[in-house]
Write a structure and sequence with these properties.
With 240 residues, this protein is an alpha/beta fold. The chain folds into two domains: 104 residues, Cobalt-precorrin-4 Transmethylase, domain 1, CATH 3.40.1010.10; 124 residues, Methyltransferase, Cobalt-precorrin-4 Transmethylase, Domain 2. The chain contains eight helices and 13 strands. It has a five-stranded parallel sheet, with helices on both faces. A five-stranded mixed sheet has the order 7-8-11-9-10, with helices on both faces. A hairpin with a 7-residue loop joins β9 and β10. The radius of gyration is 19 Å and the shape is elongated.
């Protein structure tokens, strides 16, 4: 049995009951080193197998091999297991392991937990876009940004910057401002649901020069988004 589990931001408070129940059943917990370390205090006696970033195929294959040998395996992902998580890859590899049963366990993705920290920026239609070009060409990312802005979606940006992509958020903001006002309300949240969580509100023009990292999730409003009592709010359209 292989459970592919979204652990949310990583703290016990934000894990779903379904997530905790699946982890309780696991003989071994497999995941990216950072995510395994986040939940290790909750399962100090659990066997673990962790791998570094960019070793996703090896990690998922190892989890499937353990399950094939009769182990109950928890393959953990931050946020939701199906949103930039390992659920898709596990199901892609599943035909090689026909004896393994796979159950996808959802979790709270950063778009949702980060939005809650800022207020309610995603109350209407929204798009989630990763700025990482490790697996997706920048040209396609730019097209998706442009289309989301033209469609007046509120937007959550994942992986907005890294050591090799320091200017990607600035480039993204430039593309968005082709169709969005520079005064569009925006927000950033770093270390969502973890020790040291920080957040800030700003305009899209100010966001363009804001320093962020891989632990930051960025929120860009639509044409109706506004700041109300210090909270970022995208109205649904109710008459109030």
């Amino acid at each position: 049995m292989l459970y592919v589990i979204g652990i949310g931001p990583g703290g016990e408070r934000s894990m779903t009951a379904e997530c905790r129940a699946a982890l309780d059943l696991a003989d071994v917990i497999v995941g990216y080193t950072v995510y395994v370390e986040l939940i290790r205090p909750l399962y100090p006696n659990a066997r673990t197998l962790d791998t570094a970033m960019t070793q996703e195929v090896e990690r998922v294959r190892s989890a499937l091999e353990l399950a094939e040998r009769g182990e109950t395996v928890a393959l953990v992902c931050s946020g939701d297991s199906g949103v930039y998580g390992m659920a898709g890859l596990a199901l892609e590899l599943a035909p090689e392991f026909p004896s393994v049963t796979i159950e996808v366990v959802p979790g709270v993705t950063a778009a949702l937990s980060g939005a809650a920290a800022l207020g309610a920026p995603l109350t209407h239609d929204f798009a989630v876009i990763s700025l990482s070009d490790l697996l997706t060409p920048w040209e396609l990312i730019a097209k998706r940004l442009r289309c989301a802005a033209e469609g007046d979606f509120a937007i959550a940006l994942y992986n907005p910057s890294s050591a090799k992509r320091r200017d990607y958020l600035a480039r993204a903001c430039g593309i968005l401002m082709e169709h969005k006002s520079p005064e569009t309300p925006c927000g950033v949240v770093r270390n969502i649901g973890r020790i040291g969580e920080t957040s800030a509100l700003m305009t899209l023009a100010e966001l363009r020069s804001t320093a962020v990292d891989m632990f930051t999730t960025v929120f860009i409003g639509n044409s109706q988004t506004r700041v109300i009592s210090g909270k970022l709010v995208t109205p649904r359209g109710y008459r109030v």
